[in-house]
Structures are given as C-alpha cells and as structure tokens.
Amino acid sequence: MADEKKRSKSWREIDAGRGKGSKYTSRQDDPAQQKLERSASYQKYKAAADALFTGGELPEGLAKTFDPEGKRKAQKQAMLKVTESDTRADWVKAVVDYLEKYPELPEDAYFLDSLLDHPRERIVDKALAKLELLGEEGKLKTKVPQSLDQRLKSVELTSMDPDMQGRAKALRDKLRA
Predict the structure, then answer these.
(1) Residue 151: Cβ within 10 Å count
(2) DSSP label at residue 138
(3) Could you tell me if 149 and 172 are in contact, meaning their C-beta atoms sit under 8 angstroms apart?
(4) Is 67 exposed, middle or buried (0-12, 13-18, 19+ CB in 10 A)?
(5) CA of residue 69 relative to chain centroid, distance
(6) How far, in Å, are 65, 69, 83, 166 from residue 174 at the CA level?
(7) Alpha-carbon distance 131 to 125, whole Å?
C-alpha cells in the first residue's frame, strides 16, 4: 500500500477543473454561439444547406442559381414515380423509362438498392457501379439500406456474369468491414 499515492482531490473536483483555465473555449460553452444556433434564420440556413447536399428541395434563391431549368426537381419526382409503382411489371417499365430520360443515376443508396433487384443485368450492373463509386467516396458509411447486404448477396448468387458476382461480393465485404 505504500506504492499507492493518495489522491488529494476527488474525481468530481478533477472533472470540474478540466474545462477551466484553458485558453480554448468550446462552441457549446459560448452563449453567443448558442443564441445564434437557436435563431430562426440559422435554422432556415441549415435546412437549406442540408437540402443542397442531400438532394432535398432547394430554396427558391438557390434553385434559381443551381437548377434554373428545374432538372433536379423533375428527376426527384421521376424517382418517386418509379418507387410508387403498384406492380412489379409497372416498376420494371418505370425504371427503364427513368433511365432513358435520366441516364446518370442519382447518389441515392435506397434507389440504387432497389435497382439491384431489376431483371435486366445491364441495369443491375449500372446500379452496382454507382454503389461501388459511392463506397469509394465514403458516402455509404452513414445511410445504408438494411436490404443492401441481402440484395448484393442475391446478385452474387444469381448473376450470370462472374465479374458482377465478384464485384457484388467485394462491395458486400467492404460494407461489412
């Protein structure tokens, strides 16, 4: 017991003293910053910024600047139309129509996940390529559909193309890691 040093302060006192005396202050501790973040204009700004980066609805001013023809909004509505199809046959046709009109696939992991179930291998290959690209960019870390693992496994087991099978397995392994 002689080796143990006796603490002069309790853990509560040690914890209380940790934030004090530092020349660096936390943004959370700054009352002016807290007031700014609670303001209505800041909330609107954050919502607009989130919409810009997540593919949501853009505010009027930004929509005129970034999407003057309304292509982004039209593509979003076309995506919704595809996902709202009643029967599988309607969905298959809607996907083909969508890809004819918008050949560049969106960065929506949920939409791409649904395309992995399409009967045409060309469409599955295109969706798999976009998912691989999103995975390389690190965009699949945050929002990944729960069904993606099973759909990749399905592609791995049912695809006639051995290259596509290997790519699906590699992406599946990468997402599990």
Answers:
(1) 22
(2) T
(3) yes
(4) middle
(5) 25
(6) 37, 38, 27, 12
(7) 10
Encoded tokens for 64: 């005129």
Answer whether 176's CB lies under 8 Å from 149's CB.
yes
Determine the length of the chain. 177
pLDDT digits (tens, 9 = 90+) for 123-135: 999 999 999 998 8
Give the pLDDT band of residue 122 (cuts 50, 70, 90). Answer: very high
pTM of the model: 0.59
- Max distance between CA atoms of the chain, in angstroms, equals 80
CA dist 58 → 127, 143, 168 (Å): 25, 21, 34
Q: Per residue in 117-149, is it b (16+ CB within 10 Å) or e — as a string? A: bbeeeebbbbbbebbbebbeeeebeeebbeebe
Hey, what are 82's tokens? 């595809």
| CB-neighbour burial class of residue 80 (10 A; exposed 0-12, middle 13-18, buried 19+) | exposed
What 3-state class would DSSP assign to 140?
A: coil
Q: How does pLDDT run across 142-164, given as a tens digit for each residue? A: 778 888 889 999 999 988 889 99
**Both structure tokens of 60:** 């009027």
For residue 165, is pLDDT > 80?
Answer: yes
